[in-house]
């Protein structure tokens, strides 16, 4: 989608603080974080939300989520995390490109 901010990030047209990337996904820090290292994992292809994404594409996104979680565990000792996907306006989705929030929960900040 041409005007989608997350598509622009995936194409490198808009800067983002990337923390992970593979062939299908990209992960970057949220601009309105709920905790330190709050990260969004998105597919590079445009899908609106959970209702729109095929299962095989969602599986690729979850591989990216797992990679971010593992990386934060290894690099920062993270042992607590929320993994959230808001799908639809009433569910709190603000950007209509599928994205999964990885929200670390730090013992020192609890």
What would you say this structure looks like, in words?
The protein has about 110 residues and is α+β, with helices and mostly antiparallel strands. The protein has one domain: HIT-like (HIT family, subunit A), CATH 3.30.428.10. The protein has helices at about 5-10, 55-75, and strands spanning about 20, 25-30, 40-45, 80-85, 100-105. A five-stranded antiparallel β-sheet has the order 1-2-3-5-4, with helices on one face. The longest helix has 22 residues, at about 55-75. About 25% of the residues are buried. The mean pLDDT is about 95.
The biggest beta sheet is recorded as:
5 strands, antiparallel
Order of helices and strands: HEEEHEE
**Measured on Cα atoms, how large is the radius of gyration?**
13 Å
Task: Label the overall shape.
Answer: globular
- Overall pLDDT: 95
Topology-level CATH name: HIT family, subunit A
Structure summary:
The protein is about 25% helix and about 20% strand. With about 110 residues, the chain is α+β, with helices and mostly antiparallel strands. It has a single domain (about 5-110), classed as HIT-like (HIT family, subunit A), CATH 3.30.428.
Tags for this entry?
110 residues, globular, alpha+beta, HIT family, subunit A
What topology emerges from the helices and strands here?
Layout: H1 5-10, E1 18-21, E2 25-29, E3 39-43, H2 55-76, E4 81-84, E5 100-104
Antiparallel strand pairs: 1-2, 2-3, 3-5, 4-5
């Amino acid at each position: 989608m041409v005007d989608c901010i997350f598509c622009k990030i995936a194409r490198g047209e808009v800067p983002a603080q990337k923390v992970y990337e593979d062939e299908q996904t990209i992960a970057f820090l949220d601009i309105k974080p709920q905790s330190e290292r709050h990260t969004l994992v998105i597919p590079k292809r445009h899908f609106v939300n959970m209702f729109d994404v095929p299962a095989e594409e969602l599986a690729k996104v979850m591989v990216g989520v797992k990679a971010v979680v593992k990386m934060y565990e290894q690099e920062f000792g993270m042992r607590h995390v929320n993994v959230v996907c808001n799908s639809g306006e009433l569910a709190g989705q603000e950007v209509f490109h599928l994205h999964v929030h990885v929200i670390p929960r730090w013992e020192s900040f609890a």
